[in-house]
Amino acid sequence: MEFNKKRFKQMFPNLANELDTDQNRVAISSVRSDISTGERRASAKRFDNYTPDAIDFIRRCDNEKQAEEIIEFLEKRQEISHEHAQRLKKQLRTQGVRSFGPKKQDDYYSCAGVV
């Protein structure tokens, strides 16, 4: 099937708009010929300068009691607002600790095996 630009814009206006703007560009910082090496390198920088938030800490909890302690601790240290703490506690009570996402294991942030 052959497309011209006008026909493409008619059929896919949002995609055409994204392609015409710089809004959703992704920079390529390097090119590697060995896929496995490239993947390991890319994942090594995944958490550079990343600061875990309340959800990240909650996802490490085994149960709701631990999650509630985390929420109260973060609120006490003023790392989250009282309103945010209340929303998190409500979600915890009504939907459970796994509603925040699957449990993060101890080595979640490590870059083991990176060359």
Fold and architecture overview:
- The chain is mainly α and about 120 residues long.
- The protein has two domains: about 5-45, no CATH class; about 55-100, no CATH class.
- It has helices at about 5-10, 15-20, 35-45, 55-60, 65-75, 80-95.
- The longest helix has 14 residues, at about 80-95.
Per-chain topology:
Elements: H1 5-11, H2 13-20, H3 35-44, H4 54-58, H5 64-76, H6 82-95
Helix pairs in contact: 1-2, 5-6
> Poorly predicted ranges (pLDDT <50, ≥5 residues)?
none
Helicity level, as a percent range?
40-55%
What's the pLDDT, averaged over the residues?
A: 79
- Please trace the helix and strand order, writing H or E for each element: HHHHHH
Radius of gyration: 22 Å
The profile of the biggest β sheet is: none
DSSP strand content: under 5%
Shape: elongated
Number of folding domains? 2
Number of strands: 0
Give the N-to-C terminal Cα separation: 44 Å
Secondary-structure class:
mainly alpha
What multimeric state do the chains show?
single chain
Defining key terms:
115 residues; mainly alpha; 50% helix; elongated
Concise account of the structure shown:
The chain has helices at 5-11, 13-20, 35-44, 54-58, 64-76, 82-95. It is mostly helical. It has 2 domains: 5-44, no CATH class; 54-100, no CATH class.
